[in-house]
Amino acid sequence: MSLILAAACIASVHDGDTVRLCSGERVRLANIDAPEVAGSPRCTARNRARLANSKNPPWCDTERGSASRDALRAFLSSGLPSIQRNGSDRYGRTLATLSVNGVDAGSYLIASGLAKPWR
């Protein structure tokens, strides 16, 4: 686990809380939950029912999910992104905070109504 702030090269933005770095590393924004994008397996009827009472049930507002993804993409391209790695999740993604010009991407999405704090 590294608490060092470093420059980040963003290759793609999957959704409002997951990106891929140019190195191929998958990064999940720490401490936020963004709505799912269209086609998310978390939003199938079976998974919605299975996860309904979980700590973080799926947020299946796909229109807002697309808006969240697009806002994160625009935010990260507005300057030089920095990454602070905090560990990894059960899917092998790096948990990290991403920021641009000292502004945290997760906080930005939450303030914009396009994400919520992770419960």
Automatic annotation (TrEMBL):
Cross-referenced PROSITE patterns: TNASE_3
TNase-like domain mapped to chain residues: 10-119
Pfam family, one: SNase
Top-level taxon of origin: Bacteria
Record-annotated membrane-spanning stretches: none
Name of protein: Nuclease
